[in-house]
Amino acid sequence: LPTAASVAGQWLLGKQYVENWPVWLGVNIVSVALFAYKGLWLTVLLYGLFAVLSVVGWRAWTRRTA
User: Fold this and answer.
1) How far is Cα 64 from Cα 66, in angstroms, rounded to an integer?
2) Which residues contact 2 (CB under 8 A, 6 or more apart)?
3) Which residues contact 48 (CB under 8 A, 6 or more apart)?
4) Alpha-carbon distance 7 to 37, whole Å?
5) What global pTM score does this model have?
6) Segment holding 15, helix H or strand E
7) Which terminus of the chain is more exposed, N or C, with fewer CB under 10 A?
């Protein structure tokens, strides 16, 4: 699931659709849960940071287009 959604998110990003950000946020949240289940805590921290950056990017793109 994270890989397929990442491909979709990357395609949306390449087309510069603002909808890429919620896709990336979903990928990152699922990845956090997956890596936490596996006990990979540094990777959980990394994907948590990616989730925060997804929110920041989403807000910035929304402001830019408004």
Assistant:
1) 6
2) 27, 30, 31, 34
3) 28, 32
4) 23
5) 0.90
6) none
7) C
